[in-house]
Design brief:
single chain, alpha+beta, 7 helices, 4 strands, globular
Amino acid sequence: MEPVDRELTELYLEQARPRSHSPLPTPSPITAALQTIDSLRLAEVQNYLGDSCSLPVVSKPVTLIDAKTAILSTMMLCDRVAVILSRPQPSKGLQSDLYWIPANRETVVQTVNTLRRQLEKRSDLTNRYLTEAQTLYNWLIRPFQSRLQQSSIETLVFYSGRHLTQSADGGVA
């Protein structure tokens, strides 16, 4: 993500912080942040695949197609990481909730890469990966656990940028 886009996304997410009894602007700052990130990720894919790549835009979010599906989006900002849960709400459309991971960007990337390396070791019979796996669970899923249960979510889709899907050597995992 480019610095200007990262700053714009961070501004949107700052606007989403609860203020004393003041309603959020319409459209929601979380929605605006998701749209910014979606367009940037689409541009990254098109850039990677070349100029001849033409990807159709899906007009309906997957969470509105399947009522039992939610999406966890991660956004790596300069000094912190945001996680957004998007889930269907009956008669309300899409509901998005924001959570800030209590760790900086480097710590999150390091934890992901450590977990990946540990999972790749087929000879590890001590289950050393469980510490990092639990940490990631606590960062990504636990903050939304009650909302996921309330909404009867059966499928969780992870939508993350290249920083959480990149291997330690810089390649895409």
